[in-house]
Amino acid sequence: MARIIDGKQMAEALLAQVGTGIAERLARGQHAPALAVILVGDDPASSIYVGRKLRACAKVGITSRQYRLDRAVSQAELCDLIDRLNADPDTHGILVQLPLPAQIDANAILDRIVPAKDVDGFHPVNVGRLSTGKGQGLVPCTPLGCMMLLDSVITQFRGRDAVVIGKSNIVGKPMALLLLERECTVTVTHIATQDLPGIVRKADIVVAAAGHAGLVRGDWVKPGAVVIDVGINRIALPDGTTRIVGDVCSDEIAHARAYTPVPGGVGPMTVACLMANTLAAAQDLDRPG
Ligand code: NAD
To answer: Domain Tetrahydrofolate dehydrogenase/cyclohydrolase NAD(P)-binding spans what residues (predicted)?
Structure first.
């Protein structure tokens, strides 16, 4: 029977570790790390995600400041806010909740955040550090959390076949780079990939991040594979209610070695990794020289 990787429990452990790191900062006379969260408009899903991040901040002792902007905000106004936060010594992390409204050039906004405060790890400098394997950059929270979940069940990555389903800048690409860094043989697949089932069948590690409910069927998964399900999909049930499911048919993969459930797998780890990144950013910014 496949083992269920408990992301909630692992996230609690990581949050406790971050809390300890913050207590040590305070004991040294340093300030608590401070995270600025910018939310544009009133998208319900974005509000839920921001709420979770703010609650996690309160739990571990990170000071959070929320900037709620009207959905009609201009590029210039948003840039001004980021410039102010970049220059503010009391702000250690800056997060812009995506998606942004159509009138905003999201890439230009993400590029404007100074790399040292880019706790989402989306700035080209941090992306470059990850892709050159130089380390020391901030790594996107979801793939970072996925690696920790994989680390809880896999001791030897070197030479394993891994497949990443999805090639987004937020999940798929950074995930592939992290697996490559561990010397896995990585195949990145996407919507135009031919024979996805055939590619998945060869993989020892499967990371599904397509946003397609139940895409990965049980007979695609090799016996003994480890499956990380990143997808978050809301599906309608016959009784008129809805349910959140992942990209993997988890009831069909008893022959896997281990898998993450949805909910309760990658999601909580993503939030906990944001807290870890914010603490890391504060430590680096406060380092003399
Ligand atoms: P995205 O829409 O930016 O990218 C989806 C990727 O999947 C694309 O590269 C696309 O080519 C590929 N894809 C789509 N359908 C496919 C198919 N049928 N076969 C193969 N490839 C396919 O999405 P994203 O931001 O990368 O997010 C992916 C999923 O992960 C979504 O469900 C999202 O909600 C979820 N997500 C979860 C967390 C978390 O914390 N758990 C964080 C980020 C994203």
So the answer is: 140-283
148 and 252 within one domain: yes
Element (H, E) at 86: helix 75-87
Q: Are 3 and 256 in contact (CB under 8 A)?
A: no
ipTM: 0.99
How remote is the CA of residue 7 from the centroid of ligand 1, in Å?
A: 19
pLDDT tens string 49-58: 999 999 999 9
The binding-site residues of ligand 1, defined as CB within 6 angstroms of any ligand atom, are 142, 165-168, 170-172, 189-191, 193, 196, 209-212, 215, 230-233, 266-267, 270
The domain containing residue 190 runs over which residues? 141-267
pLDDT 10s digits, 180-238: 999 999 999 999 999 999 999 999 999 999 999 999 999 999 999 999 999 999 999 99
Q: Assign 141 to helix, strand or coil.
A: helix
Same domain, 109 and 155: no
- Residue 120 included in any domain: no
In a shared domain, residues 162 and 247: yes
The runs of H, that is alpha helices, within 152-265 are 172-181, 196-201
